[in-house]
Write a structure and sequence with these properties.
The chain is built from no helices and 5 strands. The protein has strands at 2-5, 10-13, 15-21, 27-32, 39-43. It is elongated and about 35 Å long. Pfam families: DUF5679.
Length: 57
């Protein structure tokens, strides 16, 4: 899974990708950049979210 690293200014493979939902209920994936170690945060539903539902408000 790829995300944009703001420190490297390039798309990188997300290491340790963890699916989750933000406080608004949108699907997100977060992990780290393999080159510089910066946190990468990707917004949008992915294959990792299969079987998961956003928390009810």
């Amino acid at each position: 899974m790829e995300g944009y690293c703001v420190k490297c200014k390039a798309k990188r493979e997300i290491v340790g990708a963890t699916p989750s939902f933000n406080k608004r209920g949108s699907a997100v994936v977060f992990g780290t950049c393999p080159v510089c170690g910066t946190k990468i945060y990707r917004i949008g539903r992915t294959d990792l979210h299969k079987g998961m539902e956003a928390p009810k408000k």
